[in-house]
Amino acid sequence: MNVQIPCGCGQTVTVDSSQAGLTVQCPCGREVEVPAWQRPPGGEDRERAGSGASRLTELGWAFVILAVVAVLVTGVAAGSLYEFLGLQGTREARKFRAIMSGGALLLVCAAGAALRVVFGARFYRE
Ligand SMILES: [Zn+2]
Fold first, then answer.
1. Ligand 1 mean position to 110 CA, how many Å?
2. Residues 29 and 59 in one domain
3. Burial label, 104 (beta-carbon count in 10 A; 0-12, 13-18, 19+)
4. Alpha carbon of 69 to ligand 1 centroid (Å)
5. How far is the CA of 23 from the centre of ligand 1 (A)?
């Protein structure tokens, strides 16, 4: 499979896809690098072809949702607690509510990091 590589001089250099990652010489004398992604679909590159940017796996999405839910639930719970204690609306209450929500988010992130390190869980498609 032939691949056209543009050179800085304006010409295109035709190379074979098997030359991916190598440097070829343009007729003008300049060295042109053949990008590694020019390899044809198949083999180890098959998964990458057409997938574009990294995407979250199902586990990744589960953790994103878990993080949002944890923050919301903690925020609501803290609000109810302060309402019960008669502290609702005070500056201290707002501050502690923010700290508790942040703490919940940190816990979810820490759990995700632990899963990643201990079990090799993947949150992104690479
Ligand atoms: Zn050239």
1. 51
2. no
3. buried
4. 56
5. 13
Structural domain count of the chain: 2
Domain membership flag for residue 50: no
pTM tops 0.70, yes or no = no
Reported as a single tens digit per residue, the pLDDT across 44-85 is 544 444 444 457 788 888 888 888 898 888 888 887 887 788
| Structural domain span for residue 72 | 55-125
- In a domain? residue 104: yes
Q: Are residues 31 and 79 in the same domain?
A: no
CA of 32 to the centre of ligand 1 (A): 8
- What is the 17 CA–ligand 1 centroid distance (Å)? 19
Question: Of 48, 45, 31, which Cα lies nearest the Cα of 1?
Answer: 45
- CB contact set of 103 (below 8 Å; sequence gap of 6+): 74
- CA 3 to ligand 1 center in whole angstroms: 15
